Every structure is written in structure tokens, then in C-alpha cells.
Task: structure prediction
Amino acid sequence: MNATPGALLRVGTIVLAAVILQLSGFGTMRVFGGHPDLVPLAVAAVAIYAGSVTGAATGFAAGFVLDLALGATMGASSLVLTAVGYAVGRYREVRDPAHGLMAIPVGAAATLGFLVAFASVSFMLDVGASVSALVFRDMLVTTLLNALLAIPVFALSRRILRPALVVDPFERRRRRKAPIDSGPIGLRGLGA
Amino acid sequence: MFDKKVVRRRRAALAIFITLSIVMLTAYFGESSGGAFHTLQRGAQEAFAPIETGTGRALKPFRDFFGWFGDTRKAKGENENLRDEVEELRKRVAQSSTAEQDARQLRGLVDLQKTDGFPEGTEPLAARVIARSPTVWYSTVKIDKGSGDGVREDQPVIAAGGLAGKVTSVTGGAAEVTLITDGSSAVSAQIMPSGANGIVKPEVGKPRDLLLDFVQRGRRVTEGATVVTSGFTSDRVESLFPRGVPIGRVSRVDIDEVDLYQRVHIEPFADMRRLDIVEVLTRKGEPQEAAEVVAP
Result:
């Protein structure tokens, strides 16, 4: 993804929408003790389509906005989401996942990574009180809920980002023609 | 993918963002509440507030819908716990109510025995009511003391407040008590302090209203006067009930021009509808051969 104003606007829209929806809607939805977390999902979605550098930048921006809006420790979310965006982007660059349901494991892994890393950072920084084991249950519930939400969030993010993407990896893959499995024996298995 | 320039650029970007984050963290912890980041946060929160409010309202139906699952599950658990708690509390309330009522009745019995004029020569035997007649026509109760405990037929039975009835049949471990509200009951009584005599009879269906009959017209009877057993004795017959057991209080007096006697209404001291503990007045010494009560 090139850093054009249009691309920045699209990524900014995704980040802002994720933060606002998270703070005013999803953050207060209690389902089995946990709640979905749109922010790491949005960062992972941008990273999987736009790559590691854009993913890291998006993670940093999302964390910055999130900490600003929440009044939380500035830099903590940015640090963790930068790592999440970078890791997901690198995963796409290295492994080039092609499965249609790829969003589910990627979304779940990004969420779990974010929650564990953020908990570690928070614990190291300024949490003086003892931590209940229920935190782990909440993490698990949030991860499961995010896994369910991953497909629509990834699809929507892709729809928003697609005009700004230099190469849409999944679009390219769909255009690829199937190998020839008929005709002369010597030509079978070769691309068209 | 392995272009060194791309790799360097990628690593540099990561390093920059990580460094920026750490710088922000450090600066945030280092500054006071009036510092740049804190001020920026306050400004951002003010700017976000109306957007969050609007979005929050718009998303409320979805939030409520998703919250419904959790709330339902939570409510079910809470409901179950509360049901258990209610059951436990009901048991405790029942136990404490029963204990309170028993204590009240026992206190009443003790107080009754301390009253002036309470018959001497009797030995109260406490008993618990274990069954009672379900109809208004036969006012009887069964108690958990019988001949094995010294209970004999025709012995008077008192409850908290006053006279309750007499023992009409006895088995080894239980006895039947016919209350003074039973249609067959008749107790010789005296109005205090005027001394007018009469027979206390029940009015079926009105356990809180007894009739003192055969009171001569000339005797002055005042409302509120206490009625006690007269316990009369003569050469031939003797009352089953010893003298001086309180029965009730005069509530109304009916005087008929043509009648020879006054009809005095009495409100009994003992509440026959709530008898749980009674005392059988067993006689000290040998059992007495008593005659039925007759009109004076």
C-alpha cells in the first residue's frame, strides 16, 4: 500500500471507526463475562491486506487514539498494537495465507496476542493490585468472540482498503486459473 | 521479499513505532497531570465524548441484544440462588415464628399460674397439641400426654390466658381435650367481683364469643368484668373445674324483659384457634371421681 492521502484516509476511517465502536458499543457488551475487542481485529485486518509496515503504523495510530480517548497510559496500547500489526503483516508476507476462513485464526491469534501482551505491559507498568484468575477467562471469551467477528470485520476492512491496495493478494489468487487436468498427458498439471 | 532495502525499511519502521511508543510511555509517566500528554488526552476525550454518546445511543439495541444472553444466563443463576435463599429463610421464619408462639403461650401459662386465686392443689402438666378437630361443630384437640403421664378423664385443661377445656378421653400416650367452645361443653362460672353465678356455654361457629347463661336478672353485670370458674361443691356433686381459673371477660350483656336470666357474652382469654401448648391440671394425690357440671 502506498502512503497516498486516499490510503491514509481509508486506514484512518477504519481505525477511528474501530475505536469509537469499541468504546461506545462493543466495550459494554458483556457476553459470558467478556466483550469483543474491535481494535486488534481492525489492526490485524489492515495488516493482513496491506503488509507489515502499514500494519505497524496502523497499530501505532490505533493505540494512540485508543489511549487518548480512554485516558489510559499513553504509549502502552501503541506499543502492543504496533507489534500485533507488524506480526500479522509479516505472517501474510511470509506465509501468504489463502484459505477463505483465514480471518478466524488470524483474528483470534491477533486478539490473544494483544490481550496477553497488553496485560503484561500493564502489569509491569502500573498495576499494583493483585490480579484475579478471571482475567484469563475474560481473555479467552474475548478471543472467541473476536474469532466470530473476524470474518465480517476483515471483509469490511478489505472492502474499504481495496481501492488503495497496490496488490490485493486474495483477488490475485482468485484470478489464477486452475491447472489443466485434461488434454494430452504431457500438458496436464501445467498452468494455462 | 528478500530485498535488503525493503527489509531495512520494514525494520526501521518497526523500530520507529516501537521507539515512539516507549518515548510516549516514558514521557507520560514522567510528566505531571498538567503535562502535554495529559492535556492532549483531556482534549481528545472532550472531542470524543459527543461522538461516543451518539454512537452509544445508536448501538444500544445491539448492545441490549447481546447483553440479553449474558443477562439471561446471569439471571437464571441468580434466580436459582435466590430461590434457595428464600427457601432457607422461609424455614427460618417458620421456625422462629413457631418458637415465638410457643414462648408466648408458655409465658401465658406461667403468668396464669401466678395469678391470685389460681386453684391450689393442682399440678400443671404441659402438653403439646398434636391434632385438632377440623370442624366448628366439634371443638376438640389431641395432646401428646396420656395416662402414662398422669392424665385422667375430666381433668381441666388451661391454655395461655385461661381455661381451655377438659380431658374427655385418654390413651397411654395421648389424650383428647374437649374445648369450652365445643357444643357439648358447659362450665359453671362466676363473675368477679360481683359473684354472680352462671353456666358458660359456647356459641357454635363463634369461638371468640361464649355465653354465660342462667345469670339472675337482679345481679349487676358490668362489661369488662372477669369470669372465672366457680368450682362449686355440694353434698352430691362437685364441679370438674377447680375454683378460680380465668375463663374470659364480659363483652356484652343482653337483658330480655321476659327472661328470668341475663345472657352475658364472654370473650375467652384463651385463643382456641391458636392452641399449641396447653397444661393439664392434674390433681395432687389420688384421682378424683368427679361428677358432670349441673346448673346451679
User: Anything to note?
Assistant: Residues 83 and 133 of chain A are 25 Å apart (CA to CA).
